[in-house]
């Protein structure tokens, strides 16, 4: 029952904001909030969800949801700060859709206010959009780039092996042979032995997976990046044509996010 309750709570949390912000002292330099941001964002990127551990050679930065240079709000306030990997932060840059586009839903997803499953769906290792917010976030940040597809594949493989080992081996260790009829006990013992041997082979596969994971495939060259970039640029240009206006904060006023 405990496992079921835990799973239910996890699923339920996916239908609400994943990030709950801590109470912090207002008015500090935005860089002073780094530790609070790391904690509140589960040591993960606000946009692509990669963790610090998984990121390997990719650094994490403090992103301004509304870019620096904007004078309508206090951009350095804690509620405007996001914890982001450098890959997403650089792609986001000083992008800030005009009011008409935001009203139509073309804005960046924010995990402290938006429910993940309301804006995104998954198809294998690819992320699909459910809303305009999901669409704009995926296209602007290239959330289906090769490194993230590989990361999702690794996560899936590790989840599968973990489930097998935790559920399968746990069950084997708690089998009571005396509950079986005498004439089948030998068969049961042989079956358990065979299953344990298979489990040992599975554990070796886990070691291989973990070793591969430590190599940081996130830094490998993405062979289809240029083609995908052209496709994303064309689609974003079509969207911008429907909502005329400034889609970026002027660079003269904006510092790095």
Give a topology summary:
Layout: H1 2-13, H2 34-40, H3 52-55, E1 60-64, E2 81-85, H4 86-92, H5 99-103, H6 116-119, E3 120-123, E4 126-129, H7 132-141, H8 146-173, H9 182-214, H10 225-242
Antiparallel strand pairs: 1-2, 3-4
Description:
With about 260 residues, this protein is mostly helical. The protein has helices spanning about 1-15, 35-40, 50-55, 85-90, 100-105, 115-120, 130-140, 145-175, 180-215, 225-240, and strands at about 60-65, 80-85, 120-125, 125-130. It has two domains: about 5-145 and about 220-240, no CATH class; about 150-220. Helices cover about 50% and strands about 5% of the residues. The strands form two sheets. It has a two-stranded antiparallel sheet. A two-stranded antiparallel ribbon has the order 3-4.
How would you spell out the order of helices and strands? HHHEEHHHEEHHHH
Largest pleated sheet: 2 strands, antiparallel
Radius of gyration: 23 Å
Query: What is the residue-averaged pLDDT?
Result: 81
**SS-based structural class?**
mainly alpha
The general outline is elongated
